[in-house]
Fold this protein.
Amino acid sequence: MDLRRELLEAESRADQDEAERHSHLQLVRELDHNVGVPVGVAAYRLQQLIAGVRARGHHDLLRLWQLWLNELILAKRIILARSHLLIEELMAGTELKPSAETVNLMLTVLKSTPTENLAVFWPRLSALTHAKDMDVALLLLQCQERVLAELEESPEVAVHNQNLVNSLIDMHFEGHWLVAKEQLPLLLAQSLQLIQKLVTMLPDFAAQRVPELMGLVQCYLQYGAEGETHLKPRKLPPAQQSAAYGQEKEEEEQLLAQMSRPCGRKNKVRKMRSLAKQRNQAANEHHEPNPRERLVLMGNQDYGCLTGDSGENGLPSDSDQQQTESKHHRQQEAKVRISALHLLSTLTNQLPRRSFYGYWHVLFPDGDAGGSPHLLLLGLKDNNFRCRALALQVGAQLLYGSKAFLSQACSLGPSNFTPFAVSLASSVLTAYRILIAILEREYTPPVLTQCLRCLAVLVQATPFHQLEMGFVYEFVGHVKKLIKSRDPPVAVSALLVMEMLVGTSNLTPEIASSIGLAPSQRNLQMEHASTAETYQEMCDSDAEMELEEEEEQQQQQPLQNNVPNPVHTVSPSIPRNSWLLRQVLRFLEDMRIPSAVRLECFQVLQAMATHIGLLRGHQVRLSRVISAGLTDPARDVKLYAARCLDSVGYQLGRLLPEPAERELQISFWLTLLPATYQAYDSAGYSLKCALCDALSNMGAISFERLPDGQRTALLAFLSGCASDDHEETLVRVAALRAMAVYVLHPSLKTDLGFVENAAELTLRILGDSQLLARIKAAWALGNISDALVAGIPNQTERISAELLERLIQAATKSCADNDKVRANAVRALGNLLQILQVQPFGNGELMQVAMSKLLDCVTSPGNAKVKWNACYAIGNLVKHRAFFANNRLAGILFPTLCQLVVQHANFKVRTNAVGVLLQVEQRQDFSAHFPLLWRSLLDALVRSNLLESFEEYNHRDALQQQLCLAIAHLLLLARSSDLPMMRESLEEDRLEEVRATWRRVAFRIVPEQSDPLFTCSPLLEQRLQGEVNNLQRCALAFITSTLRLDP
């Protein structure tokens, strides 16, 4: 019987007057139409009908009306006008006596109500939480989620949101929904989703309720495990770091054997067999291929996991395909865990990373792979692949940014107790073991992708040099196989793991061996002979080697015909242990490989460039793949190919190539220059900037060995890019930066025409509105000024007076710009003023203005780098007596230097400020400031032992050395009349500390710089023979005895 018929029968039985019954039946006829279009209904009519039926207590009739109206609205047979009136009535009924039919109809009407009318219901709806009927409770949660999605942030809404989320959390901790049966998983999942959305909308709430929220997460991550469904969360306070982990677990012998076994193979001396023979004998010599590997490499989409009960061959068994009801129940349980993971992900985004360190033992293993449930264990054992993938994704989120925390991990510690560092190291190693186990048994592409990404983040944060070795080979062996997967996200994630591993700054012998870095190419010392035996090189198999040789022979001839390189070069074969380089180059040489994989390959090459020994000798092949990348159809691949060229070129440029390698260097650039010019023509501004940056890293050796025509073309290309007014400013300044690098190359340093051209281009960009452009232009101006100063002794022609004046004016103006601009502007201004001092047409007024600006940079508050660059520039200027022609400048300079030397927090600023005093060669230039300078130097020497910041410890020795040299310098310049004052200042409770520091510096300083300190006392003794009065003689004798360095 349909709802309409039941409703009509109920109407006929209801105790109501005929007029009302007739009205109800008339409404039924209006709503129940056979027309194919929806009928519009005024919501106030339904409001009055429901209110009247409820008032008379006809509960069965009310239920049928609500069910039928819900059916009509869902079928879109009626359209409500002013539906908020009906919602008001339904909400009033829910507040009075909630029923599933009432709330269900309210949910349906809410979904069809315009979003701008929903906010008005939120204050009342957010207060409806404690429903006794579980069906009603579930529907109320859905209603609240519907309205919450459309709310705009406001203080009033935030108050109601906070009240609701507090109520929901309290209901979880009180076990309010545990009485439910079938609805329990749905209630838990829906409420967790609502809590997650509310926490997202309340930025400060998560920090206030971390223990409660983490208690929810911990409880529901294990929902459904071993049949546990009626779980009651508990508040979870953060653990102290010292107690965050239990005692370190003893590792089983089997695990030790597994971790220590060699992965890889040694090179065989015998000749490799052909692939045909290997294929013919495969059945006799090799086991049947692992079905899991076959599924992974073919990008299998039949999601599953090789669990302990899934069959001998590792394929999904039929045991999971039971009754539909059981499967549905498992899916509902998985939704609870997924909702808990989404909540944890939201907390990860909202809370600072340090908030999770107290919960590390909850979120990650505590040293026992099979211990309490945690994220990685969920990723390993959960029966739902979406839950496994999400757990690993959240784990990667938490690990990202935790490098400082994990840097405390250390496997070595005292034997009588387990310190925190050892416990943390045990946790890290267990995390690796679990991720390796996932890679061994998983063949679901989404889970593999997330596992590899989690592994990549963990690799980036791991202090390998502080941990026991043996686990790197374990995961590299699996990653090597997955790199060849036909599923692009899996292959990209596997390459990402290797990128992070290769990019590790402190390479251990195991890492170096696993990535193919030979001992002769690394800066590593093997502690024991057994270590070298344990860490065997990870090598490609015979089949992989022979397959590559066949492909290279097919590609070699056409490539030789197409390479625009007149220099005859031979690209050496890649050693068998360099499997990663071999695989990356093979991917890049095959244009059928997906663009995402090729892009990641270029990033791996960028990481390899930091250990240039991996790429050294393979420049020809590298140039081919980078050149092909610059012409790739995918725009992102072009960009990363340019960045790869930038990194590889920079590292190659820093090398001093062997004679046999110089031709490879030239061949590398001769191949890439035409490709760079071609890629620039059709590039966007990001790619153009990257190409110009790459060209700037060519290196002086390669640049000087380019043929004259190629060098001229390169300079013309950069000059044209920098002078093109129609080009983006950032592109022009990138080209200018490359020119500023070339300015310091030997052949161009004395080329005044090129230097002046670069200077003119710099002036055109230095006043640009973009800060980044001005920063790079100021850096270029500093390099150009360095080249001009370096050429002063050898130049037969001088820079034009007009250009020099404009450069000084521009640098002076830039000294008032942003700190990053000023830091280079003061460097340039100091150099330019040196040039102006030796010019016959020197402009005195211009020099005074520029010097005043330099002093302003020293005195004004700002970046420390600005101050030390300004001090360095002034130190070069005071070498010339012209600086002291204006007493006003000296009157500002010396008191400022005294203040910097004694009080500035940055030791490098103090050191450079003292360096200015060492450049003053005559006593009269100090004038009346000499006593202040002497006392300031003594105070600074005493204060140098007071470290306010440990960061300055590395600069303390340099400061004390510079102060002692300055003290010796002032003693040699001092007049006889200065000596009593100098003795008096030395005796003022500074004597012992000055003497001790003086001796310590004198015996620590390198012999080449120690002469002023060791000769100071004998020179002072010689002055005793001169014309000095008794007071001066006593002062001189006292100072001499204080600073004497006799053993």
